[in-house]
Design goal:
The structure is a single chain. With about 300 residues, the chain is α/β, with parallel strands linked by helices. The relative contact order is 0.17. The protein binds N,N,N-trimethyl-histidine.
Length: about 300
């Protein structure tokens, strides 16, 4: 594992409010646990977003038009991606972009087996930075950046703005963005989704420490931390933490980091937006909101933005 990653993790643990990036959730076990989360009865986002896509697919396909290139940020192998690949008209190419070459190879080979007629052009890149797009055999009439799952919620508003600007650049002239965004709502519904009865989200959160022990040589005691997920309605976000249940010290090489009883490590933000708030994000990143679809309970939105 690169030293720069270890340095980044250590720097986060030295802060007064300790924090570790949510990207460290997703080792093999973490990815499996997240998949389990998406099927939990309390976790409404995945099923709601899929329902919105299915209910509005004809209109989505019509807005995107024929011979588009679909550029997914994240190597999606989700059901939502499949619905798009099945329904978009004469797709020029499907371009999954991911920092993990392993994830990309795995999901691309599955997708290409299921959709032998679609040209699949995977790109290994850190999508926080602009990257070069591959050239499909058919010249695309439009680039459509796809960012499902309310993954945008993991980012602070500033970082989300930066990411949306990269998407703006990749969309290019005449391009568009199709993005799934979770909405602000009753705090009880949100907190239940991140504190499920079966304890899968707690296991997912704690698994980050197991990952750090294995890959980066920490000695976190998994029994000495508890899962916490609270919605802050003023900030409009869930804050996911690991709370230390006693005074303890975590070690890495020569470094010793003390953690007090009740002190927490912030492992994730999951921002929820209002429609107005997210429209302001579109505007700031150089997009105009063309269409917003929501479910009947107003839990989640799928939005189609045009590049200005
Ligand atoms: C993958 C970032 C969209 O914020 O809901 C689920 C991750 N964390 N349960 C989310 C997550 C805890 C998820 N995202």
């Amino acid at each position: 594992m690169p030293d720069s990653e270890l340095e980044e993790i250590l720097a986060g643990l030295r802060l007064p409010q300790k924090k570790i990036s949510p990207k460290y959730f997703y080792d093999e076990r973490g990815s499996q646990l997240f998949e389990e989360i998406t099927h939990l009865p309390e976790y409404y986002p995945t099923e709601t977003e899929l329902g919105i896509m299915q209910d509005n697919m004809d209109e989505i396909a019509e807005l995107i038009g024929p011979q588009a290139s679909l550029i997914e940020f994240g190597s999606g192998s989700s059901q939502k991606t499949r619905v798009l690949l099945e329904n978009l008209i004469d797709l020029a190419a499907y371009v999954p972009v991911d920092i993990s070459e392993d994830h990309l190879i795995e999901s691309s080979s599955k997708i290409s087996a299921e959709f032998p007629d679609i040209q699949i052009l995977p790109v290994v890149a850190d999508f926080m930075q602009p990257f070069d797009l591959p050239e499909p055999a058919i010249w695309p009439r439009r680039n459509v950046v796809y960012f499902p799952g309310s993954t945008v919620g993991n980012f602070t508003h500033d970082d989300a703005n930066e990411l949306l600007r990269v998407m703006h650049q990749e969309a290019g002239e005449g391009g568009a963005l199709l993005i799934g965004v979770d909405l602000q709502k009753d705090r009880y519904i949100i907190e239940r989704a991140y504190n499920d009865e079966a304890g899968v989200t707690a296991a997912f959160n704690l698994n980050m420490l197991r990952h750090l022990n294995r890959e980066f040589g920490f000695d976190f005691d998994l029994d000495a931390y508890e899962h916490s997920a609270r919605y802050d309605p003023f900030a409009g976000r869930v804050e996911v933490r690991l709370v230390s249940s006693r005074d303890q010290t975590v070690r890495n090489g020569d470094e010793e980091i003390p953690i007090a009883a009740g002190e927490s490590i912030l492992t994730e933000y999951s921002h929820k937006y209002t429609l107005e708030g997210f429209a302001a994000m579109a505007d700031a990143a150089g997009f105009s909101v063309e269409k917003v679809w929501i479910d009947a309970e107003r839990l989640f939105s799928v939005q189609y933005w045009l590049r200005q």
